[in-house]
Each structure stands twice: as C-alpha cells, then as structure tokens.
Amino acid sequence: MIIQVLVKRLGRRGAGFEPSPFEISGPAGTVSELICACVETCVKKHAEHAARIEPTPLDDEEIDSMARIGKIAFDIDYNGQAPSLEEAKRHALQCFEDGWFRIFLNDRELTGADTPIVLKDKDVVTFIRLVMLSGRLW
Questions:
Q1: Total domain count for the chain?
Q2: Is residue 81 in a domain?
Q3: HSE of 45, CA atoms in CB hemisphere, 13 A
Q4: What's the pLDDT tens digit per position in 12-57?
Q5: What secondary structure, in 3-state letters, does the chain show?
Q6: Which of 18, 62, 66, 133 has the smallest CB count inside 10 Å?
Q7: Residue 47 domain-assigned (yes or no)
Q8: CA distance 40 to 37
Q9: Which of 15, 18, 22 is CA-nearest to residue 64?
Q10: pTM (2 decimals)?
C-alpha cells in the first residue's frame, strides 16, 4: 500500500510540507500498526543503504530533492551496525506514547496507539516531531 507522507522542508521560513510517496506493507488497522509498518519500511531502506559499499554519484535531480529536505548526503552507514527491527518498533511506539511526535491522517489527529483507523491508498499521513525546549521553570 502506498500512502502520502508529509515531510517538513527544513531551512524554509514558510509553511513547508511536501508530500512524498511511502510504501508500507499491508493495511494498518490501528495507529500502532501504522507506526510499526512505517518503521519496517524505514529499517528496510536503511539496511539496503547500509549494504552499499561505495557511494554512487548524485545526479542533479537527487541533489535538488535532498536540498529541499535540507541535507545532501550519500546515505552511507559509517557505523556498520545492522538495525534491530523489534527494537526500532518498540522505540517508536514508546516515543508516540510519550508524546515525542503526533500523527495526523487526512488532517485528523490520531491520539491513542490502539485507536482504530481505516487506511486507504493515497491517504495523507503527517508525522510532526515535537522538540522539547530546555530552560528553567520559574
């Protein structure tokens, strides 16, 4: 199933969200299943990139695409550690429960991990990462 994920455009002042296609495995019935499906896709992509030994030259289209996101890189894993799928899922679910990010499905906020959802092809899913500011409480 292919959904549209909104990705924040870094380095721009205006409202900067750009939809990009994102493939997940099968339909998700709950918010936690959606999170796990997205994590599976990301871990799979990371493992594929880590398997590459040498960097490939970037063409103009790839450079422009990366520039819109705010980072131009060869996507090489210099660490060499294989990601753990189960640990990544557990970490993502814990972050959602702790309020580190919010999820919107077609402009409707998904609140609980066990909230049932109906996900269709081309639905727009928005992940908004919340950043905690440091400082003193008075």
A1: 1
A2: yes
A3: 10
A4: 455 556 778 888 887 788 999 999 999 999 888 878 777 766 667 8
A5: CEEEEEEECCCCCCCCEEEEEEECCCCCCEHHHHHHHHHHHHHHHHHHHHHCCCCCCCCHHHHHHHHHHCCCCCCCCCCCCCCCHHHHHHHHHHHHHHCCEEEEECCEEECCCCCECCCCCCCEEEEEECCCCCCCCC
A6: 133
A7: yes
A8: 5
A9: 18
A10: 0.73
Rounded to whole angstroms, the Cα distance separating 28 from 31 reads: 7
Residue 117 domain-assigned (yes or no): yes
Let me know if residue 104 belongs to a domain: yes
pLDDT tens digits for 97-122? 998 888 999 989 998 899 999 988 88
Hunting for tokens 């205006």 — which residue is that?
14
Length of the chain: 138
